[in-house]
Amino acid sequence: MRILSAVTIFVFVFCGAAAAQEFRGPPWFSAARCTRAISDAADRDLDRLQSWAAVYRTFRLYRQCDDGGTAEGYSDTVAILLTEHWPDVTELSNLSKSHPLFERFVLWHVDGLMSPEQSQLIKENARNRCPAGAERLCRHLEKAVEEID
Amino acid sequence: MAVKYSETLDYDGETHQLTLTRGDGTVQSFPAANNAQRRSGGRWPDGTYHYERHTTHPDDAPDSGYGSHGNYIFTVPGRDKMGVHSGRADRRDGAGRSGVNHATLGCIRTTDEGTAAIRDAVTSGDPVTRITVRNNR
After folding, report:
1. Across chain B, how many H-helices and E-strands are there?
2. Contact A116 B96 (CB under 8 A)
3. Does the structure show a pLDDT above 90 at A87?
4. Do B78 and A31 touch (CB under 8 A)?
């Protein structure tokens, strides 16, 4: 009986902990540092993200607000740049070499919001159309697509 | 004399319904979902949250990320830009879901009709000031 109770408690606690850990937001998000003014600026900036340089700029200024609607805008931008503007990946590769956390930010937004067609195209781009010097980034992009949950 | 109600917005995570009760007692329900990706801060916790602001973007449309009427944002402690929006009406996410079931990174997704009703309520003389979220486990 005691063993049964112990097992029941263990299962309850373990499952509770697992459920609590189901979601994991980006480590650079900080509600405390994401003020209303910064959050508004981040939202306005979403409409200007047409190059990797612009995405890097927004990451540098507003990454603490990477949550909810803003985060969804980042995922949309990353998907568009990696599919419709693939030749620009050299610029992303160069930025990633100098700023590893930025690469992590981009890979974080290779996520389940993108369509199956987009993720397939990114995988094909990374595997078959990787520019010279960007091989490491291409490997990471391919892996990120494979790990989409 | 007509009874005047305050306008309320409710989201039920079990029935996947967003319900707007207007000041004149009219009740409107819309399909909605809160399919937050695992790699996000997660779904809305159960509770009541104050309306904060509304954001729009030039590309707002039925298939865009936020839908035709933008994002209606409420104050959720510890989170940012937690809103109710529509979008992705005919575009699939990685799991093949579209419409209200399309994944988000925290927001509740409803239909364009749902956000149009919120827009009307927010701009009315007795606007929506809060949302109550329940059964959202």
Report:
1. 1, 8
2. yes
3. yes
4. yes
Question: Phi and psi at residue A143, in whole multiples of 5°?
Answer: -65, -40
Q: Residue B20 in contact with residue B7, Cβ under 8 Å? A: yes
Q: Which amino acid, residue A129? A: R
Residues in B touching A24 (Cβ below 8 Å): 38-40
Measured between alpha carbons, how far apart are the two ends of chain B, in Å? 41
Could you read off the pLDDT of B80-128 as tens digits, one per residue?
999 999 999 999 999 999 999 999 999 999 999 999 999 998 888 778 8
Note whether B41 and A67 are within 8 A (CB): yes
Please answer whether residues B104 and B94 qualify as being in contact, where contact means their C-beta atoms are separated by less than 8 angstroms. Answer: no
Q: Give this complex's ipTM.
A: 0.94
Task: Please report how many Cα atoms fall inside a 13 Å half-sphere around the Cα of residue A27, on the Cβ side.
Answer: 4
Residue-level pLDDT at A21: 46
Residue type, B120: D
Cβ proximity of B110 and B100 under 8 Å: yes
Distance, in Å, from the CA atom of A149 to the CA atom of B118, rounded to the nearest integer, reads: 32
